[in-house]
TrEMBL record:
It comes from the Bacteria. Its EC number is 2.4.2.9. Pathway: Pyrimidine metabolism; UMP biosynthesis via salvage pathway; UMP from uracil: step 1/1. CDD domains: PRTases_typeI (cd06223). It comes from Rubripirellula reticaptiva. Belongs to the UPRTase family. GO terms for biological process: UMP salvage; uracil salvage. Residues 8-207 form the Phosphoribosyltransferase domain. Catalyzes the conversion of uracil and 5-phospho-alpha-D-ribose 1-diphosphate (PRPP) to UMP and diphosphate. Keywords: Allosteric enzyme, Glycosyltransferase, GTP-binding, Nucleotide-binding, Transferase. This is Uracil phosphoribosyltransferase. One of its GO terms (cellular component) is cytoplasm.
Amino acid sequence: MSCVTKVKHPLIQHHLCTVRDKQTRSSEFRAAIGRLAVLVGMRATEDLPLTPVKIQTPICEADCQRIDVRVELVPILRAGLGMVEPLQGLLPDAAVWHLGLFRNEETAEPVGYYDKLPKSGAPNVALVLDPMLATGGSVEMVIERLMSWGVPDIRVLSIIAAQAGVDRVASHFPDVKVFVAEIDPDLNEQSFIVPGLGDAGDRIFDTPQHG
Ligand code: PRP
């Protein structure tokens, strides 16, 4: 069963206006990506398993529940960095494993350039962070890497995806859950999402490459 979830919330629609708008300044863009990341992240973590614990309050003992599986973050450099701090707000003890990929501008194929994952010790749940899922090639490379590391539960969190990209990931990895704020219909000839938001990495770090 493929598992692609488009998260619905009025605040998502509202903040998508900001990230789509080409007039939005980099600082505002980063802030809006952060808010959207939290909204998507809440949904992507809503079924994490809980274990009962006893907590001593200042008054008496209380029956509580705590997440006791390892949930860790895997941002895809560079743009995924824009989602790390917002997700750390939800999961303050989550380790962060960076994977560096860029798309070859001619072929749109991902090229890996940074990977320091250890040989063992994979977390129970990995949250892959990247604001854009276009052709799906980058996310696929990361999913394959996390599977080879031994992560049993891989969840992809993105802000805007192209229909072709989510279809590709869902058909190749039916057990991987994908959570997105919006799914756009098309890719252009440079494999950018249409209408999309442009290049998320360049907009987050204010490093325009085109014009
Ligand atoms: C963008 C984006 C994704 C990838 C999506 O990164 O942040 O990582 O492209 O494309 P795909 O689904 O077709 O693989 P980019 O290569 O622009 O690198 P950057 O984050 O360093 O800007």
